[in-house]
Design brief:
heterodimer, A: alpha/beta, Rossmann fold, seven-stranded mixed sheet, 12 helices, 14 strands, globular, B: alpha/beta, 2 domains, 16 helices
C-alpha cells in the first residue's frame, strides 16, 4: 500500500515539491558544485534523478556495488530512485528482496564481509526500526569489535521526513538514533547536485553510512551536470562530511539539513525582502560527524543562530549543535541558540503536518526572538 | 520417518546400517524427551535418503581417536575457563559442557573454504577452526571484543545478540555463490535464538535466494531458564519444511553422526542445493553462564539422565570397545589436556588490561573529529595515572571488583598489578 500516495516524477514535472510555497529551487542559492558546460547552462534535473544517476555511476564504476531493497528492481523503487538500474545491471546486482528490513541490513553485512559494497534501500523512514539491531549492534560495531579487521562499506538509503501527505510511519525523521551510535556516519542531502555527489561518496566510504534523502524534495529540480566520481580511493569521500554555506549573510545564521535547507533559504529570502535582514544559511549535509567549522565561523560574525529540522527537539541534532556552539563560541553569541523543530509528539495525521513541520513563519519568529534578546 | 540420526548409541555401539542410523534402536530414545513420533516427512527427500554410515566410512582409526582428542581437549579448556572465572580471572564464562560432540562433529566437517558464524558458546567450533583459546578467554576476561581474524580462520567473531549472525551467514553465503566459491557458510544458533525474528528472516531469505548456508541449531534444551518447549510448538527442525528446504535432526551428543550430517548438509549447500537446517539435540550440562543458577529452574535428575548420554563417555566407550583406546592412551590424552589447561591458565592470567588509548581505536575506518578530540582530551587528563584498579568481577553484572576483593571465597591478589 505504500506506493499508492507517492507522487512520481512523471506526475509532477513543475519542479515544485515543497509544501511551503517555495516553488522551484533557486539555482543561485544552491552550492556551486555544478560546473557549467561549454554548450550552455546545464539542464535542471530532480533530486531523485540526480540520485539515480549517482547510483548508476557508482555501479558502473565498481562491480562490487550491489543495490538491494524492497521494490528496487522491477519497479525502480517506490520513489523511482533506482529506476532502470536492474535493466542496466541485472537482477544479480539490483535485488528485489523479501520484506525483511533486518535481513536487508544483516545480509548486507555478510556480503560486505565477503568484499561487496551493498547499497540498501529502506523504503520509508518508519520502516527502519525492524533493522535497528542490525544497524546499531552489528553494522556500527563490527569494525570496532574486530579491532579494525572487518570493514563494512554499507550504504543505507532512507527517504525521510514529512510533507507528502502520507499515512503513518512514512514521514519520520529518525536521524538522531543513528547519530547517537558510534561507528555510523549519517548524512542528509538537500539538493540535486549534492545528492548526486554524496551518494557516490557514501558508496565509496569504507564506513557504513546512513544516507537520508529528503523525500518531499525528490521532485525539486536544479541545473546539474552528472559527474561520475572517478576517484575511487578513500580520499574521494572527504567532502562528504563537510557542511556548506548555501547563502551568505551578516545578521543571523540559519542551520538546516535535508528538507529544511530549502525552508531556511525561503525564510532568508522573505526576511531580506520584509525585514531587510541578511540571514546566512548553512546546510549541515553531514549529521555525524558534524562539521561545525562553518557554523562557528558564521556565528562569530552574526552572533545569532537558529537550527531547523523536522525531527522532534528532544535529544536531537539541534540539541547537539546548540551545545557545541555554546561551548565553542559562547562569547560571540548575542542570544541563546534557538531551535525550530518538529514537535515532541508522534508525527501527526497528514492534514496536520503543515502545523508540525517547521515553516518560514516559525523560522522568522525564532529569528525575531533572537534579535529581541 | 526419522526420529533422530545416530551413528553411536549411548552405549557406544557403532551403527553401520543406514536403516538403523536413521531409525535408531529403542534404547536411544532421548531421556526426558517426549516421543511424539514426529519425524522427517516425504517433503524432505534428500535428508530421508541419507546414508549416514557412508558419510563417515572414510574415517580411519586415527581419525576417530583425533575426534575423541578434540572432545577431551575442548572439555578441559572449558573446565579451566570455568575455574578461571571462579577465581576472578574472567568476568564471565559460557560453558559448552555437554555440547562438545555437536561442535566438534560439525566443526570437523568444515573445509578450508567454509565460513562459520558462531554465537557465543561455540568454543569447540573455534577449536576446530584453529582459533587460539586465549583469544576466547580474552573476550570473557574483558580485554578484547573479538581477537581473531575471521578470514584467516574461516570463523567469524562471536555474536552475543542471539540470532543476528544467521543473517550475516546468509549474506556471506550469497557472496560466496556469486564469487564461485566452493565453500559454504554455517550459522550456529540455539533453541532460544530460533524464536528470534532474525533467524526466521534468515530462513526465508536463504530459501528464496538458495544461499549455500547450513543453519546448525544446537538445541541444548534450555535458553537460560526457559525450556525449548517455550520456544516452539513444533520441533525446530520441522520448521525448514515451511521455508522450503531440507532438514535433519541429529543426536547432538554423537560426534560421528554430527560429523556425518554436517558433511552432508555442507555438500548439499556447496552443490547449489540451497540452505539446510540441522537440529542437533544436545544438553547444556552446565549453567547458562557462570552468572546463572540452574537449580532455580531445572531438576537435578534431568542432568543425571543427560550425564548418561555424555558425548565424551560415548566416544570413549566406543573406542575402548574397538581397541583404539587403552588406559595408557587415555592417560596420555588427559596429560595433554592438563598441559593445555595449564598453558591457558598461565596465558590468561598474563593477559594485560589493554592500553586505555585503544578505547578510541577503530571506531571507524576514517578519522572522526569528535573521537579525535575525546582521545586527545583523555590522553591529556589520564596522563600516567593507572587505569581503575581491579579486574572484572565474577557475577556477570559488569560491576568491577576493586583490588583485593574476595571473589568466590578466594582472595584475589593485588600483586599482579596490570
Amino acid at each position: 500500500m505504500t506506493g499508492a500516495m507517492i507522487v512520481t516524477d512523471e506526475q509532477r514535472t513543475d519542479g515544485s515539491g515543497s509544501t511551503d510555497g517555495s516553488g522551484a529551487a533557486d539555482a543561485a542559492s544552491v552550492p556551486a558544485t555544478s560546473p557549467a558546460t561549454a554548450s550552455g547552462p546545464p539542464a535542471p534535473i530532480t533530486l531523485a534523478k540526480a540520485l539515480n544517476l549517482g547510483l548508476h555511476a557508482a555501479m558502473a564504476a565498481d562491480p562490487k556495488v550491489i543495490v538491494m531493497g524492497e521494490d528496487v528492481g522491477t519497479l525502480g523503487g517506490v520513489f523511482r530512485v533506482t529506476d532502470g538500474l536492474q535493466r542496466e545491471f541485472g537482477e544479480a546486482r539490483v535485488i528485489d528482496t523479501p520484506l525483511a528490513e533486518s535481513a536487508i541490513v544483516g545480509t548486507a553485512i555478510g556480503l560486505a564481509m565477503r568484499g561487496y559494497r551493498p547499497v540498501c534501500e529502506i523504503q520509508f523512514d518508519g520502516f527502519v526500526y525492524p533493522a535497528f539491531d542490525q544497524i546499531v549492534s552489528q553494522l556500527a560495531k563490527l569494525h570496532y569489535r574486530s579491532a579494525g579487521r572487518i570493514r563494512l562499506p554499507v550504504t543505507i538509503r532512507i527517504p525521510f521526513g514529512g510533507g507528502i501527505g502520507a499515512v503513518e510511519h512514512h514521514s519520520e525523521s529518525p536521524e538522531a538514533y543513528f547519530c547517537h551510535t558510534a561507528g555510523l556516519k549519517v548524512v542528509a542531502c538537500s539538493n540535486p547536485a549534492d545528492a548526486h555527489q554524496m551518494i557516490q561518496q557514501a558508496i565509496r566510504s569504507d564506513d557504513p553510512v546512513i544516507f537520508l534523502e529528503p523525500k518531499r524534495r525528490y521532485w525539486e529540480k536544479s541545473p546539474m551536470v552528472p559527474q561520475p566520481l572517478t576517484d575511487l580511493s578513500a580520499t574521494a569521500t572527504e567532502g562528504l562530511h563537510r557542511s556548506a554555506v548555501v547563502r551568505a549573510g551578516r545578521d543571523a545564521t540559519l542551520v538546516g539539513y535535508g528538507p529544511t535547507v530549502r525552508t531556511c533559504l525561503d525564510a532568508a529570502e522573505v526576511s531580506a525582502a520584509d525585514d531587510g535582514r541578511s540571514l546566512e544559511v548553512i546546510d549541515l549535509r553531514s549529521l555525524s560527524p558534524l562539521d561545525l567549522g562553518p557554523v562557528l565561523d558564521s556565528v562569530r560574525r552574526t552572533g545569532r543562530l537558529v537550527v531547523v529540522h523536522e525531527a522532534p527537539s528532544n535529544v536531537s541534532v539541534s540539541a547537539e549543535v546548540a551545545a557545541r556552539v555554546t561551548e565553542e563560541a559562547f562569547y560571540s553569541l548575542e542570544a541563546p541558540v534557538l531551535r525550530v523543530t518538529g514537535f515532541d509528539t508522534p508525527y501527526p495525521p497528514a492534514r496536520l503536518e503543515d502545523h508540525y513541520l517547521p515553516d518560514v513563519d516559525r523560522i522568522l519568529d525564532a529569528v525575531d526572538r533572537a534579535f529581541d534578546f | 520417518m526419522t526420529e533422530l540420526m545416530q551413528l553411536l548409541t549411548p552405549g557406544g555401539r557403532r551403527i553401520t546400517q543406514a536403516s538403523e542410523a536413521t531409525s535408531p534402536a529403542a534404547d536411544t530414545a532421548l531421556a526426558g524427551q517426549p516421543d511424539d513420533g514426529r519425524g522427517m516427512t516425504a517433503t524432505e527427500p534428500d535428508a530421508a535418503d541419507l546414508d549416514l554410515p557412508a558419510l563417515v566410512a572414510d574415517l580411519t582409526g586415527a581419525d576417530l581417536v583425533a575426534l575423541y582428542r578434540d572432545l577431551l581437549l575442548v572439555r578441559r579448556f572449558d573446565e579451566e575457563a570455568t575455574s578461571l572465572q571462579r577465581q576472578g580471572e574472567l568476568g564471565l564464562w559460557a560453558s559448552l559442557r555437554g555440547q562438545e560432540a555437536a561442535q566438534v562433529g560439525s566443526g570437523r566437517a568444515l573445509g578450508p573454504h567454509d565460513m562459520a558464524f558462531p554465537s557465543y558458546r561455540e568454543h569447540g567450533v573455534a577449536w576446530c577452526r584453529g582459533v587460539d583459546p586465549e583469544a576466547i578467554l580474552a573476550i570473557f576476561r574483558g580485554t578484547s571484543l573479538g581477537g581473531w581474524d575471521p578470514d584467516e580462520h574461516g570463523f567469524a567473531l562471536y555474536s552475543i545478540v542471539v540470532g543476528a549472525q544467521t543473517l550475516h551467514a546468509t549474506g556471506y553465503a550469497m557472496g560466496m555463490a556469486r564469487d564461485g566459491s566452493d565453500g559454504a557458510a554455517i550459522a550456529y544458533f540455539g533453541d532460544g535464538a530460533s524464536s528470534e525474528g532474525d533467524v526466521n528472516e534468515a530462513f526465508g531469505w536463504a530459501g528464496v535466494f538458495g544461499a549455500p548456508v547450513v543453519f546448525f541449531c544446537q538445541n541444548n534444551q534450555w535458553a537460560i531458564s526457559e525450556p525449548a518447549s517455550r520456544q516452539s510448538r513444533t520441533e525446530i527442525f520441522h520448521r525448514a519444511t515451511g521455508f522450503g528446504f531440507p532438514s535433519v535432526r541429529v543426536d547432538g551428543n554423537d560426534v560421528l553422526a554430527c560429523l556425518a550430517v554436517t558433511r552432508w548438509a555442507l555438500a548439499t549447500a556447496r552443490a547449489g542445493g540451497g540452505p539446510v537446517l540441522v537440529e542437533a539435540l544436545t544438553y547444556r550440562m552446565g549453567a547458562h553462564t557462570t552468572a546463572d543458577d540452574p537449580s532455580r529452574y531445572r531438576a537435578a535428575d534431568e542432568l543425571e539422565r543427560w550425564r548418561r548420554r555424555d558425548p565424551l563417555d560415548r566416544m570413549r566407550t566406543h573406542l575402548v570397545a574397538i581397541g583404539l583406546l587403552d588406559d595408557e592412551r587415555q592417560r596420555h590424552l588427559e596429560l595433554e589436556a592438563d598441559t593445555l589447561a595449564q598453558d591457558l591458565r598461565v596465558r590468561c592470567r598474563a593477559l594485560p588490561d589493554p592500553d586505555p588509548a585503544i578505547l578510541f581505536d577503530h571506531v571507524q575506518v576514517t578519522d572522526n573529529a569528535l573521537v579525535a578530540v575525546q582521545r586527545a582530551a583523555f590522553a591529556a587528563t589520564s596522563g600516567d595515572a593507572p587505569p581503575a584498579g581491579g579486574t572484572a568481577s565474577g557475577d556477570g553484572t559488569g560491576i568491577v571488583e576493586r583490588e583485593g576483593a574476595v571473589v568466590a571465597g578466594e582472595r584475589h591478589g593485588t600483586e599482579e598489578a596490570w
